[in-house]
């Protein structure tokens, strides 16, 4: 049996939840110098920007987004047409609008839809009655 020494830190036992007291000893001057050399302190933003610019895909996507934003803001001032001229209907577009004129109101759309569904029901009743007469 060993004698207990008060000045010596106890050893951690295996499979024990006891803390290892050697990990909590004061750092030596050499360890303190090593910690100072290891890293310089930076701000959170500066560190994040450094990591961002190390990623080439992220930088490329930021450049593309910036180009799109600049194009969106500058292009309307460069184009020689106003919004009213771009949205006006002239030429061959009138023919297309005439063919789509029957779809102009909700009431007309309901009427067309009702006609189509009634025609479907008529044809489905005829086919079902023909099928029953054939089976008899």
TrEMBL record:
The keyword Transmembrane applies. One of its GO terms (cellular component) is plasma membrane. Keywords: Membrane, Transmembrane, Transmembrane helix. It comes from the Bacteria. Residues 43-85 form the Oligopeptide transport permease C-like N-terminal domain. It holds the Pfam family OppC_N. The chain crosses the membrane at residues 57-79. The keyword Transmembrane helix applies. This is N-terminal TM domain of oligopeptide transport permease C. It comes from Treponema bryantii.
């Amino acid at each position: 049996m060993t004698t207990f020494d008060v000045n010596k830190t106890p050893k951690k036992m295996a499979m024990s939840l006891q803390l290892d007291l050697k990990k909590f000893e004061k750092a030596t001057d050499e360890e303190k110098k090593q910690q100072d050399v290891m890293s310089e302190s930076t701000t959170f933003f500066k560190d994040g920007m450094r990591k961002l610019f190390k990623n080439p895909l992220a930088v490329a996507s930021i450049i593309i987004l910036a180009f799109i934003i600049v194009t969106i803001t500058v292009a309307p001032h460069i184009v020689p047409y106003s919004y009213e001229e771009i949205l006006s209907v002239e030429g061959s577009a009138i023919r297309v609008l005439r063919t789509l004129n029957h779809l102009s109101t909700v009431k007309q759309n309901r009427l067309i839809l009702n006609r189509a569904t009634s025609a479907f029901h008529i044809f489905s009743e005829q086919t079902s009655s023909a099928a029953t007469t054939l089976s008899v």
